[in-house]
Structures are given as C-alpha cells and as structure tokens.
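Dear colleagues,

I hope this message finds you well. In preparation for our joint manuscript, I am sending the UDP-N-acetylglucosamine transporter-like (Sinocyclocheilus grahami) sequence together with its predicted structure, so that both groups work from identical material. I would be grateful if you could confirm receipt.
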Amino acid sequence: MFPYLMSYKNYVSLGVLVLQTTSLVLTMRYSRTLQAEGPRYLASSAVVCAEVLKIVACMLLVFRDHSFSVRALNRVLKEEIFNKPLLTLKLAIPSGIYTLQNNLLYVALSNLDAATYQVTYQLKILTTALFSVSMLGKSLTIYQWLSLVILMTGIALVQVSSLVICVSGQLSLKPTVIEQAVFFFDC
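The corresponding structure tokens are as follows:
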C-alpha cells in the first residue's frame, strides 16, 4: 500500500508499547512500595485479576468474531477446550509457570528500583534467543547477535552500577563508568 503509512504505524505501535510497558512497571512499583496504613494487596490477587480480565477480553473477541452469537461462543469453547482435554492439560504447564513468573515480578518490583527491574527483565530476550539457538536449532543473523551482546552489556552495566561499595564501614558512591567497565571485562 503506502510504505510511509506502514512506517508511521510501526512507530506509533512502538511508542504505544513503550508507554504501556513503562507505565505498567512504574504503577506496579508505586503500588508495591506505597507506605500506606493497613495491609498491602496480595500479588497473587493482582495476578488472578489480570488473568480473569484477559479471559473476559478473549471471550468478548471470540463472541464478536462469531457475530455476537452465544450459541457459537459455546460451540467454540466446547470444541477448543472441553473436547481437547489433553491439549488443555498440556497448556496448563506453561500457564502455571507464567503465573509463577507474574508473582515473582511483583516480588522483584517490591525489592528493586524500577530502572534496574526493567533492564534486568530484558534478560528474557537473551535467554529466549539462546534457547532458540540451542534447543530449536534457529540461526541468528550477525545483527541479532550484536544486539544481544549490546543488551547483555547494558544489563551488566546496570547491575554493576546498582551495587554499592562498602569501604571501611562507610558507604561510598556508586562505581563510575570506568570501574564498571573494568569489572565487566574482568569477569
């Protein structure tokens, strides 16, 4: 169609994704570290609520795709979920791991600052790429490998910069960029 229009849509999509991701992390961090009277909410409750909202949204989309027919919705649910119990059971394992991951994200946000959390969370890209290469036999281009090296370097620098050096019982300033680079290349 129009190449410039597709490029524009890509940039808008990227901007919305960045805005959504950062606002999610910041609001989660704020809600977990808010010093208010009374007990905080349980992370598991937030995870369950989010998953219920996703199920409702998916069911609404299926309902819309089948001309808003309740009968068609019931038929699709019966065919895809209840008539395929083995497949549904196979999906229970990754969904359980996903639920555990989401609970651990709340724990991480309760104990880390938002920037360290966000950068460290990007390790999932590195591990996914490494598992894709080692287990699935996928091949990566030189630019993809270079991107992974840059990502790994950024994560290492953020982790090193978040360390606080203790000198003779007193806390000193965070390490400088040169000290971080020396530490990174020393490993």
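For the figure legend, we might mention the following. Confidence is low (pLDDT under 50) at residues 165-187. The chain has eight helices and two strands.

With kind regards,
E.M.
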